[in-house]
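[Q] Does anyone have a clean structure-token version of this?
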Amino acid sequence: MTIERLHSGPRMSQAVIHNGIVHLAGQIGAPGEDATAQTRAVLASIDTLLAEAGTSRDRLLTATIWLADMGDFAAMNAVWEEWLGGANAPTRATGELRLATDAYKVEIIVTAALP
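[A] Here you go.
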């Protein structure tokens, strides 16, 4: 089976496609923006990468969401639920974690099936 890597660098790839599954690296928004804006930016990035890999949010399998502060849970969830549109929700875990810098509020990692 082949492994396809998208947007690879010396440290990581933004997406890896293997065995009918697309694995995305953690996506982050613009540093310093609030959790709502960062979540919107992250989800737009996820849409772009999934489309490039040949799939979409309708085929999500799993999501891991890291928040720098669980106080942003409701703000992130509002954007997340709007983005999902009430259908095809993946399995999901959300936790609080210190992210790469204090300027990041949200990081989301997803996997999706290819059609």
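[Q] Thanks! Anything notable?
[A] The radius of gyration is 14 Å.
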